[in-house]
Write a structure and sequence with these properties.
InterPro entries: Glyas_Bleomycin-R_OHBP_Dase, Glyas_Fos-R_dOase_dom, VOC_core. This is VOC domain-containing protein. This protein has about 190 residues and is α/β, with parallel strands linked by helices. It has two domains: about 35 residues, no CATH class; about 150 residues, 2,3-Dihydroxybiphenyl 1,2-Dioxygenase, domain 1 (Roll), CATH 3.10.180.10. It is built from six helices and eight strands. Strand 3 and strand 4 form a beta hairpin. Helix 3 packs antiparallel against helix 5.
């Protein structure tokens, strides 16, 4: 097992280690793990997004996406800033925190955009988009049937994160997607959009 001093920087940085660290040459913790890597309701990947104004973002995600709040940790030493809030959206969890420039944690608005787009699979993307717009989002691409068998579009939430709202409407093979994509690009003309 790792020396306690080795784990301390991770604890100070806010990382919660679930399992003891194993030095090189020792048995892998994968064979000794007493718990699953991602215990329910977590999945292997949990997005952790940073925003300016986490309380307002939480309220937006509740109204727009029907999120429920699982936990909220605020740091009184940081003026009550949210350092971690977890929301359940559908069958997944997303983690949210206020910006913390001292830890190089900045939201999309501070960065001039976001390098990622989150996909939210829903029953009715039109209805979710309408709720999101009512709650303050803007439409980037309107909801429409897509060549790859989904009805989807893209919104930007009031905090700068972009979301694809998507529902499967047709099972399409990869080969058929390739044919449809080529046809779609031809229809777009020289501008490509």
């Amino acid at each position: 097992m790792a020396e306690p001093a080795l784990a301390e920087p991770a604890r100070q940085a806010g990382m919660f280690l679930q399992y003891p660290l194993q030095p090189r040459g020792h048995p892998s913790p994968m064979t000794q793990r007493p718990h699953p890597i991602a215990p329910p309701p977590y999945h292997a990947v949990v997005p952790h997004i940073v925003v300016a104004g986490a309380p307002d973002a939480i309220a937006f995600y509740k109204k727009a996406f029907g999120a429920t709040e699982k936990l909220r940790l605020a740091d009184p030493k940081l003026g009550g800033a949210i350092v971690c809030a977890e929301l359940v959206i559908g069958d997944s969890i997303i983690s949210i925190a206020d910006e913390a420039p001292q830890w190089n944690a900045r939201g999309p608005k501070a960065l001039g955009g976001s390098p990622i787009v989150l996909t939210l699979n829903v029953e009715d993307p039109d209805a979710v988009a309408a709720r999101a717009v009512e709650a303050g989002a803007k439409i980037i691409y309107p909801i429409a049937d897509q060549f790859y068998g989904r009805r989807e579009g893209r919104i930007e939430d009031p905090f700068g994160h972009q979301w694809i709202l998507s529902a499967v409407i047709e099972d399409v093979s990869v080969d058929e997607m390739q044919v449809r994509m080529a046809r779609w690009w031809e229809e777009q003309g020289p501008s490509g959009a």
